[in-house]
Amino acid sequence: MWVFYTRNPETFSIAKFWGSLKPWLTTTDHKYVGIMYFLFGLFFFLVGGLLALLFRVQLALPENDFLTYDEYNSFFTLHGTTMIFLAAMPMIAG
Hints:
Layout: H1 14-25, H2 30-60, H3 69-93
C-alpha cells in the first residue's frame, strides 16, 4: 500500500514538529543515544570529507593558489581533528 503525503503549509505545526523531536533530544534511553552518536558522527564524517576535498583541490595542480599556505594548514589540521574526535570516536562509541 502506498501512501502519499502532500506538503501543505496548513498541515505543518511547530507543536507537532517539536512533539516528534523532543523525545529524541531529551531521552536517556541508550539505544536512542547510540543512534544519535552514530548520526552526528556520520554528519561530521561528511564535513571532514568536504575539508579533505578542499585541500585535495589545492594539491591537484602544481603552483595552485586555491588556498593560501595558512588556509591549507588550517584545513588539514581541522580535517584530522574532525575525523578523529568528531567522526570516528562518536561512531565507535555509538
